[in-house]
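Hey, can you fold this one?
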Amino acid sequence: MAMDLKEIENFIKEAMPDAVVEIQDLAGDGNHYSATVTSSQFSGKSKIEQHKMVYNSLKGRMGNELHALAIKTKEN
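Sure. Predicted structure:
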């Protein structure tokens, strides 16, 4: 079962309450998304660490309910 935009946003905001999250459905199929996440929690972390934080916020759904997510992170 696919995830919708709001579910993805809710998981990210639950883990990073100050995050500004912009999500796009890239293929219109509910399986391929792009997310831009801006958070002060990214300060001082590498891009890899920032992306891991986003993946971890999805609590194991990446690769299961969520097929593909392109991530762009920004420090607040």
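Residues 5-15 form the longest helix (11 residues). Let me know if you want another pass with a different chain boundary.
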